[in-house]
């Protein structure tokens, strides 16, 4: 297809509202602003003051607030919502983030660890209609059927429930341009590498009559911004399409070869994905991002490898961290 014209922006800030890790001792720098050590206060009668300092929630899920500035216009989007109904809302409150100012929601895919916080968001949002961009396969029933163990069905999103809460559901397989053409949602990602083959056979989907392997998770999509003079900023949820596939797909869609930043889950954790870590790391090293913030499902082996291969770009992720990128 012809390249999509992605209007450049002057500033983008990605605030991780929920991630697998919360580290209150991480240092900030000119790229990363860390959450304060004292993020909140909770009642605790065992202390003399009757209260104690609390941090932020960490769980196996991902949610990020994306703020894009173009000239004098600023737009705020929510990308995924975490695992539990309350973690994202609690963290937002402790960070002073007003979730009622969100102008749209984007779901990276239908897995419950990215959509669980929609219930909490609905409670905070009130009755105001809110656009939600997603792939039509987010409603598919899925399960994990590990040999020798009972199959575990995964929570399935309800379109009826979301529309009943006032979300304006927008289903798209193709790329979407939001925010006056300055934010790209990739839609389905082309699978072009020979090593990123997706989920193991235990990950299954219901086809209407039977369960079948669902390796591709075709509803997986990413958010892309063109930072003026610096290149692409790519935000992933789990990266089920493959981190390298996603980056190259964004480059093809936009015609912009430079990768400035890659943030989010890269799904390299666990023994099933260990064999592709080296090739993924090498491809990302060749892409040469200025900022690399792998989170969520990336896994400790891949984190170590990426930190060693791209020491100037790699930054540890943590709930509450904000990454401010300026043209």
UniProtKB/TrEMBL annotation:
<dbReference type="InterPro" id="IPR041712">
    <property type="entry name" value="DHPS-like_MBL-fold"/>
</dbReference>
<dbReference type="Pfam" id="PF00753">
    <property type="entry name" value="Lactamase_B"/>
</dbReference>
<feature type="domain" description="Metallo-beta-lactamase">
    <location>
        <begin position="69"/>
        <end position="172"/>
    </location>
</feature>
<protein>
    <submittedName>
        <fullName>MBL fold metallo-hydrolase</fullName>
    </submittedName>
</protein>
<dbReference type="InterPro" id="IPR001279">
    <property type="entry name" value="Metallo-B-lactamas"/>
</dbReference>
<dbReference type="InterPro" id="IPR052926">
    <property type="entry name" value="Metallo-beta-lactamase_dom"/>
</dbReference>
<dbReference type="InterPro" id="IPR036866">
    <property type="entry name" value="RibonucZ/Hydroxyglut_hydro"/>
</dbReference>
């Amino acid at each position: 297809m012809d390249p999509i014209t992605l209007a450049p922006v002057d500033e983008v800030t990605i605030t991780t509202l929920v991630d697998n890790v919360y580290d209150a001792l991480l240092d900030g720098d000119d790229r990363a602003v860390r959450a304060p050590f004292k993020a909140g206060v909770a009642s605790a009668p065992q202390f003399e003051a009757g209260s104690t300092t609390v941090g932020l929630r960490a769980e196996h899920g991902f949610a990020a607030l994306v703020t894009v500035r173009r000239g004098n216009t600023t737009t705020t989007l929510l990308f995924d919502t975490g695992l539990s109904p309350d973690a994202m809302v609690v963290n937002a409150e402790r960070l002073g983030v007003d979730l009622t100012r969100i102008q749209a929601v984007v779901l990276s895919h239908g897995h419950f660890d990215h959509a669980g916080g929609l219930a909490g968001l609905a409670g905070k949002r009130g009755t105001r209609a809110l656009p939600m961009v997603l792939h039509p396969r987010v409603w598919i029933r899925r399960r994990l059927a590990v040999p020798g163990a009972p199959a575990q069905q995964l929570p399935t999103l309800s379109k009826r429930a979301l529309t009943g809460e006032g979300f304006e559901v927008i289903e798209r397989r193709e790329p979407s341009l939001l925010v006056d053409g300055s934010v790209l949602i990739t839609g389905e990602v082309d699978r072009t590498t020979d090593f990123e083959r997706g989920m193991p056979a235990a990950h299954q989907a219901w086809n209407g009559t039977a369960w079948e392997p669902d390796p591709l998770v075709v509803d997986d999509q990413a958010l892309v911004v063109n930072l003026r003079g610096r290149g692409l900023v790519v935000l992933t949820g789990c990266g089920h399409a493959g981190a390298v596939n996603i980056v190259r797909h964004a480059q093809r869609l936009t015609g912009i070869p430079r990768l400035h930043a890659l943030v989010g889950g890269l799904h390299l954790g666990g023994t099933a994905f260990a064999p592709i870590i080296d090739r993924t790391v090498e491809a990302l090293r060749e892409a040469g991002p200025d900022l690399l913030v792998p989170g969520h499902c990336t896994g400790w082996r891949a984190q170590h490898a990426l930190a060693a291969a791209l020491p100037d770009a790699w930054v540890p992720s943590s709930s509450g961290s904000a990454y401010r990128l300026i043209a």
